[in-house]
Specification:
It is a single chain. The chain is α+β, with helices and mostly antiparallel strands and 89 residues long. The chain folds into 2 domains: 11-46; 50-89. The protein has 2 helices and 5 strands, in the order ααβββββ. It has helices at residues 13-26, 31-46, and strands at 47-49, 56-61, 64-67, 73-77, 80-84. The chain has a 5-stranded antiparallel sheet. A hairpin with a 5-residue loop joins β3 and β4 (73-77). The longest helix is centred in the middle third of the chain and has 16 residues, at 31-46. The mean pLDDT is 88. The chain binds zinc ion. Zinc ion binds next to loops.
């Protein structure tokens, strides 16, 4: 897990205003928490947690994802993400 120290990236004035509004709306303590939460929400739309290795696997189709870490192909069947390890040999 990568941890960014505060202020390693800068927000524009507009963005700070947006983040502050979100902070109030979400009842969070500071801007950093807002960013963490937004990233977590956003990643769920494009990736899933690999059931095999715990890294994030990018969704390639509605019911399919590929893990770049362990190279599993993960498919959604009956609401459960199933990892299929690459067949070798
Ligand atoms: Zn994996």
């Amino acid at each position: 897990m990568i941890e960014y120290a505060p202020n390693t990236f800068a927000l524009s004035d507009d963005e700070q205003e947006m983040v502050d509004l979100l902070k109030e709306e979400m009842n969070l303590a500071n801007r950093e928490e807002v960013m963490h939460l937004l990233v977590k929400q956003a990643i769920q739309r494009v990736a899933i947690t690999c059931p095999n290795c715990g890294h994030y696997a990018k969704r390639t189709e509605e019911n399919k994802a590929e893990c770049r870490s362990c190279l599993s192909v993960i498919t959604l069947s009956e609401d459960i993400w199933d990892a299929n390890l690459p067949v070798s040999g």
